[in-house]
């Protein structure tokens, strides 16, 4: 490996270390506690080195948000591939969405503004639409109308999202029910919406 490749690899590793350190700090202390100084201390670098990779804390938040959307899309896509039936795919995809929210709580809170001030990062990030697009496609397959209007598909998507995101949010702020009850509510909601998706 040449020196240019080694330098590039070291820069990539440092960048990833910064992001991982930021996420570790958030897991321990919450998003409001994150600062460039704390990240520098965590990876034992000086703060100016952190600024060589990210202009400010918002740059780090943007990259972590992007990472979250990419992981979410991968998990939704994997869930879809487990089933042939669009209804089963849709249920599995929303359950994957739910599981992502609790497996990656800190990223979910950042991505969707749960229990914190939501930054408007989603609008400028194509990765934010990856999982949504997968779910849209399956909703269209379930609908019995040929070429359903986009606003109808959008309405059905947001019906799903508002219920599932609402249930996740309730549980992330520790006001939910036990896990068995949560799973029953989640599956009832998904199956109910699928049942009436053509209304």
Automatic annotation (TrEMBL):
<dbReference type="InterPro" id="IPR001647">
    <property type="entry name" value="HTH_TetR"/>
</dbReference>
<dbReference type="InterPro" id="IPR025996">
    <property type="entry name" value="MT1864/Rv1816-like_C"/>
</dbReference>
<dbReference type="InterPro" id="IPR009057">
    <property type="entry name" value="Homeodomain-like_sf"/>
</dbReference>
<dbReference type="Pfam" id="PF13305">
    <property type="entry name" value="TetR_C_33"/>
</dbReference>
<feature type="DNA-binding region" description="H-T-H motif">
    <location>
        <begin position="35"/>
        <end position="54"/>
    </location>
</feature>
<protein>
    <submittedName>
        <fullName>TetR/AcrR family transcriptional regulator</fullName>
    </submittedName>
</protein>
<keyword id="KW-0238">DNA-binding</keyword>
<keyword id="KW-0804">Transcription</keyword>
<keyword id="KW-0805">Transcription regulation</keyword>
<feature type="domain" description="HTH tetR-type">
    <location>
        <begin position="12"/>
        <end position="72"/>
    </location>
</feature>
<dbReference type="InterPro" id="IPR050624">
    <property type="entry name" value="HTH-type_Tx_Regulator"/>
</dbReference>
<dbReference type="Pfam" id="PF00440">
    <property type="entry name" value="TetR_N"/>
</dbReference>
<dbReference type="InterPro" id="IPR036271">
    <property type="entry name" value="Tet_transcr_reg_TetR-rel_C_sf"/>
</dbReference>
<dbReference type="GO" id="GO:0003677">
    <property type="term" value="F:DNA binding"/>
</dbReference>
């Amino acid at each position: 490996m040449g020196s240019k490749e080694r330098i590039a690899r070291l820069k990539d590793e440092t960048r990833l270390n910064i992001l991982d350190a930021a996420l570790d700090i958030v897991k321990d202390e919450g998003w409001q506690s994150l600062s460039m100084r704390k990240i520098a201390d965590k990876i034992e670098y000086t703060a100016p080195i952190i600024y060589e990779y990210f202009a400010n804390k918002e740059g780090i938040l943007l990259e972590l948000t992007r990472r979250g959307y990419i992981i979410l899309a991968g998990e939704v896509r994997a869930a879809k591939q487990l089933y042939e039936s669009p209804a089963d795919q849709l249920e599995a995809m929303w359950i994957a969405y739910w599981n992502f929210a609790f497996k990656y709580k800190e990223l979910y809170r950042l991505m969707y503004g749960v229990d914190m001030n939501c930054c408007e990062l989603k609008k400028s990030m194509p990765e934010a639409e990856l999982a949504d697009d997968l779910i849209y496609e399956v909703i269209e397959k379930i609908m019995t109308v040929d070429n359903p209007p986009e606003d109808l598909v959008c309405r059905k998507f947001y019906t799903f999202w508002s219920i599932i995101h609402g249930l996740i949010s309730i549980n992330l702020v520790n006001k939910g029910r036990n896990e068995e009850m949560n799973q029953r509510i989640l599956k009832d909601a998904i199956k109910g919406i699928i049942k009436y998706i053509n209304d």
